[in-house]
Every structure is written in C-alpha cells, then in structure tokens.
Description:
Blueprint: H1 17-23, H2 32-36, H3 39-65, H4 74-89, H5 92-101
Amino acid sequence: MATESRDFEIVSTTHAPALQKMLAKPDAGANPFKIVIDPKVRMDLRRALIDLIDYHDEALADHFAEGKLALDSYKEYIELFARSLKETMESREGVSYLLRSVGFDVRPDEINLNPELRWKKGKPGAFGSSLL
C-alpha cells in the first residue's frame, strides 16, 4: 500500500508512539469530509493557507529585523502572528485570495464575511456554535 505524500504533519511529542499513529489519518476514507469535498479543492486551499502563513511570518520577521516592530517574547510574536492572520481572514481581500486559490472568481461585494453555520437538525456541532 503506497503512503500519501504530505507537506507537514502535526505530531504530539507527549504521547506514546502507538497513540501518535492513531492520531494521524492517512486514509482519505477515514475522514468523511475528505469524501464530500473535492480533494483538489482541499489541496489548493491547504497550499494557499500555507503560502499565506509563510507570507505573514516573513512580513513580521522583516518588520522586526528592520526595527519597526518591538517584540518582548515568542508569546507576543505568536499573538501578533495570530492577530495578523485573523484580520486577513476577516477581510474580503483574505477570503477573496482563498477563493481565487481554488479557482473561483467572486466579486468582493458578494463575499459573505459572516456565513452562518447550519447544523442539520438533531446533529449539532461537537462544540456548540463553533466548528472546532
């Protein structure tokens, strides 16, 4: 059986190796979401998000190196990094970038920045109104 090539994998170092193997789901059929959503769309979206993360990381590092940004700790860097990504993803430009990355050309005024989660009746999300 061929293994799937991945750009990255999140692995916890606090769990035993056997548990670590249980956390990864290399089989596309192991996750029903992968069956419903076109794998190419998922891969294009993943690539766009990684590129966006890299862009924000490089921009923050450049600002710091040029003396434009003061940082007291890695904690503060991560907080600023998260804020930067959040502000981008809450903007029409950020959502438009993701849409273009998977092949959609949508006018900015047609982008819904507050899509409603529509859980099916009797099947609420695991954590309430959040997707996570």
